[in-house]
Design brief:
274 residues; Rossmann fold; seven-stranded parallel sheet; 7 strands; 38% helix; globular
Length: 274
């Protein structure tokens, strides 16, 4: 079914991929509710831009590590929107530390924020979509590091691996309700460039990436918007790598690394932020 309401919820839309996704969906004609956490001014700007496009933009503050608050936040936004057609689970945080150096509290924070909180948000959204009986779309932002390990990304990769498994299972369980569930797996996304950097992300050389540069958030948001659209009606249970070819570089990279710098959690490379 493709008659789902033109209403969407995006988690973590105060900046980065979440913000770009909320605006992409608004441009596609959706009223967009969203959660935010770090950047109150960024959340206000997201809402302002959505409203300027002629759409409703309710928002709530949410820390997905505060597990009991996750489902109520989704339900509140759906109530404000008058229903739910699309849910995008975007919230994610990183931790750059070797497994042997990771404290349990830090491990738990990553798992709660990225996986356990996501489970509760996705569960609430799925219940709403089932109750609506008009089909719908769920898109989950994972990471190429769900399948491609990286030194220092133990907690992050574990959380994203679990999230990808949850996505695939939901695709099976919700298929009978006309609800598709897909993952988008970003690679290196230029969401945290320093203020003094004036170049566009595409102008900053990244020779380890086949395309030669990192993506901007909009390039991920465009794929999410496609998966949220009727055009993706026969796509479910898939994981879409948006990584400029990074995930294809395993053997090639191992043949060309010049030293052992990669054996530290502080080595330069992919940002795990949103």
């Amino acid at each position: 079914m493709n008659s789902y309401p033109r209403t969407a919820i995006v988690t973590g839309a105060d900046r980065g991929i979440g913000k770009a996704t909320a605006l992409a969906l608004a441009r596609d004609g959706f009223d967009v509710g969203f959660t935010w956490h770090d950047d109150e001014a960024g959340a206000a700007d997201t809402a302002s831009q959505i409203k300027a496009l002629g759409h409703a933009a309710p928002s709530v503050w949410l820390d997905t590590a505060a597990l009991p608050t996750c489902a109520p936040a989704v339900n509140t936004l759906a109530g404000d929107l008058g229903g739910l057609g699309v849910f995008v689970n975007n919230v994610g945080v990183g931790l750059n530390a070797a497994v042997v150096d990771t404290e349990l509290a830090d491990w738990q924070r990553i798992l709660d924020t990225n996986l356990n909180g996501a489970f509760l948000c996705l569960q609430a959204a799925a219940k709403l979509l089932i109750a609506g009986n008009t089909g719908g779309r769920i898109v989950v932002v994972t990471s190429i590091h769900a399948q491609q390990p990286r030194f220092g990304f133990g907690a992050y990769s574990t959380s994203k691996f679990g999230l990808e498994g949850l996505t695939r299972t939901l695709a099976l369980e919700l298929s009978g309700h006309g609800i598709t569930v897909n993952a988008v797996a970003p690679g290196e996304i230029a969401t945290h460039l320093p203020p003094e950097e004036t170049r566009h992300a595409h102008q900053i050389p990244r020779p380890g990436l086949p395309l030669g540069y990192a993506a901007v958030a909009q390039e991920v948001a465009d794929v999410i918007a496609f998966l949220a659209s009727p055009a993706a009606s026969y796509v479910t249970g898939a994981s879409w790598a948006v990584d400029g070819g990074m995930s294809q570089m395993g053997a090639q990279a191992s043949s060309h690394l010049p030293d052992n710098a990669w054996r530290t959690a502080t080595a330069k490379g992919t940002s795990a932020g949103r």
